[in-house]
User: Fold these one by one.
Assistant:
Number 1:
Amino acid sequence: MGDTTRRVVVLGASGLVGSAVAARYARHAVDLRLVSRRVPPTPPSGAARVSALTGDLTDPVFAARAVDGADLVFHLVCHRLPGGSWQVGEDDPVAEAVNTGTVRSVAAALARRADRTPDRPLPTVVLAGSSTQPEDPGAPGTTPYDRHKSRAEGLLARAEAAGELRAVTLRLSTVYGPAAPPTRDHGVVSAMVRRALAGEALTVWGDGSVPRDPLHVADAARAFEAAGERPAALRGLRPVVGSGRPVRLDALFSRVSRTVAEVTGRPPVPVVRVPPPEGASAADATHTPADPGPFAGASGWSPRIGLTEGLRDTVLGLWPESAPA
């Protein structure tokens, strides 16, 4: 099968990572279908034949339509609360339906695919996971989001064992970076950049010693591309994908403050330590090391964008957003 007939589907194409993956695959000579709840950003012109499909992926009928004829599916869907947080409650059925139920529907639709022939490879699903998700979805001390991701990963593993698809999960660290309008990054780094641009103090919980591993969205998109193009090399791996250069949150926020000051010419805003809020999860106070070595060795990928360049890139991307009308 020639590359020009390969159908690549990006689920969650209007999100930060989804729009970046779409931009990568716009360069490939493929049939590129961008699926999201709202109209996704238009990727740069390239060799791909691009189409967009909008709707609710929690509807199994729409999910089946979204992945119809797919050879490669990127599942980059994530439920967020109205304010942008993904730390949902235990009894949030919508979050489970988005984070796990959509994977169940996609796997079922691909298992029923009628156009499978001996010379056509099994479809591949590449799932965006979390570096903090447990191996056991019932493990204590983890967030509902992490458990949703673990259950989704398990669904794909069972479908793969049944010979219905090939599955890869990339367990991502803290992804950040500029987003193409109308996409909005709700992550902690962009949230702090927006605060600094507004002249507000940056608040860090506790002593700020908890490390995070910031991964620029362009590096994350390249990681998904590498996984999509070489799924066989990743068989049996559940790699954590990060920069491999963790930084304490207080140091990260200080660098955000200084970068905003350098770009805008204004004084840096202060970084203030505050007690963790009521309801903060144990995951907020822990760090899962993100060693990119196993994934890099299997896929050929490596992170390219350092924190200094990445933060400046993010500030420049968000600065126009903060300018007065």
Number 2:
Amino acid sequence: MISKERRKSILYAFVALLFSIVLYFNANGQSVQDTLSGNEAYTQNVSDVSVQLLYDTDQYYIHGYESTVTAKLSSANRVQLNAEAMEDTRMFRVTADLTDLGEGTHEVPLKVRNLSSAVKAKLDPDTITVTIEKKVTKEFDVTPLLETETTPAGFELNDVELSPKKVSVTTGDQTLEEIQQIVARIDPAMITDDGIDTKVTVQALNSAGEPLSIVSDPVQVTAKATVTKPTKTVRLYGTAQGTPGNNVESYDFSFSDIEAEVTGSESQLAQLGNSITIPIDISGIVHRTTRKIDIPVESGVSITPASIDVEITPVLQRDDGNTNRSSSDESSASSVGSTPANSSSSTTRQSEETQSTSSEETSESSSETTESSSQPNSQEDSSEN
């Protein structure tokens, strides 16, 4: 016979169990109701789920199908649902079984495998269309395909070199007959003013220029090309800028190079002309000074040399109104006035004017000599008559 105290203990335990059940249903009533009624409380769409094909990979080549689908997952267990939705923790996979199909085009149903029993899935689409061909492999030459043969600045590209020049192509036997050429298509965005040096994906094209399904080995080739940049030679001249030093009348400039080679587009070179004026800061210079000065050019234009040494000689004002070059001795002063190959623009211009004047004087002298030599002849002719 059960004692009174034991009966009380059993009663208290029953009441506690009853309260626990009530509290559980109160907290999870909706989920339990959905589970009992067959309705899942949580849903989530998972896009880009890969489709795995089951077939003889050594014998057949498959193409023409959608490689991903969208799966709508639903479950009363949110933790389990999230695990299947995340790619890193996903257990299920979508497959298409082609093992019993022959060559040709087929519509194949998709199946979800290894999905947790607590989760349901609905696929969109739930079928795919595939083309099955016999697998073949052949080696092809790769041809570079350019949409433009100039760089952004207008420089002309030289011949494009591909490495490797041949690739191994795997595809279906029917597709192989449609291949017109294997190309490495070079996008204009890959071209710089220095040329091309990039990796390009290999493609197979038919006679209409449309891409075909292939697997290339290697998948990419390296494309390289240099550019031919127009060049021209220009004359260099100097112009003084700044505040002259005390008692300085003017300045003579002597350049280490009086010509430079400029590289740029045709339009840039045409706009540049045949000379470049170099601004030279003479502020406060009262003695002969040598400075390295960069040659100014616009963006997109390069010049060789990029800088030159400029010897700056101040011409001093004398008290009697005459000028005198600042120098350590008379001989060095007189040497500045000469016109060697590396002389300044000012002395070079003087030399050219002197040569031009001398040439004109020589021409006039020659003309006068000719006239004078012809006069005696005319006199002799008259005396004979």
Number 3:
Amino acid sequence: MIVRPKTTWFRMLFVWHGSVLNRILAPLFINFLLGLLAVWGATHAAHFFPHLNPVPFSLIGVALAIFVSFRNNACYARYWEARMLWGGMKNQVRDFARFVITIPGLHKDDPQVTRALNLMVAFVYTLKHQLRDTDPRANLARLLDADLVEEILRRDCRPQYVLECLQQHLVAWHGQGRYGDILLESGLRKLDTLNGVLGGCERIRGTPLPYAYDVLLHRTTYFYCALLPFGLVGSIGVATPVISVFIAYAFLAWHAIASELEDPFGEEPNDLALAALAVDAERALRQAVDAPDMPPRVQPDGCFRLR
């Protein structure tokens, strides 16, 4: 995720990091060369170059803009839903911490409370690593004992197993008479909500937009941008390379942004900052028990990128 302070309109014209310009620079350069070729052909070899009517380009451009906007809206909806899921998970983590600290009648420093909260932190980190296909061992090793870490790592769905361990905690406290059936049900509902977050994230990550639709828009966009200079040269002449690149930039940038937002859990510049969100959730849990060892907040790097 790109997090940078507001800047002036002039400096915004030259922003590079997070602008997806690096992904489309090569196609834009090719489009510029095609624009130069179209101008040269119109002035020096007009009998070899077909004169394309600009009217079809206007009609196709409007239709293409509608379809590209639809894909961008669909991808942004996935991005926003993912952010809502992680925001809801943070709320549930806080609720669970309040439940564990106050309901069982144990002190904040009790090892059982510490282990329950560590398991909740482990759930957040295992979910982050599962969504990004990375190894959670380093995060788990500082939270849980070695045997439990190995037991978690050998599972296919690691966050689900962590929820099972948390449920065992709640059931054990209920068996000890620390709270009744109603409060047990309340605690289990909190875990059910977290399981819903897990399922929602898996649904977003495991169900991309239809591939055929992506291929159609990709081919249409690049073919349209390649022919655009030859449709413009008859009406705008030597300005064709500049105007063509400007129009191509809009379509290709929309396409590139949608590709990044389609998988909001990745590590591209405009994806969700899962590492920062996970650390914020851990800090919320640590603050609930006045823990002295607070993890530092994740800060944007030199390129204003928050991971």
